[in-house]
Amino acid sequence: MTLTNSDKSWIKNLLQDGLGSQEEKFEAKLTEFKSEFFDKVDPILKEVVTAREERPLIENRVETLEEIHPKGKHSLVT
Questions:
Q1: Domain ranges across the chain
Q2: What average pLDDT score do residues 34-58 get?
Q3: How far is CA 69 from CA 5, 20, 55, 61, 66, in A?
Q4: pTM for this structure?
Q5: How far apart are alpha carbons 27 and 14 in whole angstroms?
């Protein structure tokens, strides 16, 4: 039995419709995954940025304290 042009056209349309809906489902899942991923990663990245911004402030404070307290003792104490 040979396939007619209408049979081929019907099969082609069936495959395109099936693949199209699968592609849409895949894209929806991918979008959902990306959203969940970024929701979980975003707070961590904010912590990293905050730590980077605070690092110079902490270093300056430590340096100042080390000037006041060399070798762990207050510089004004004899």
A1: 36-78
A2: 95
A3: 92, 71, 21, 12, 5
A4: 0.49
A5: 20
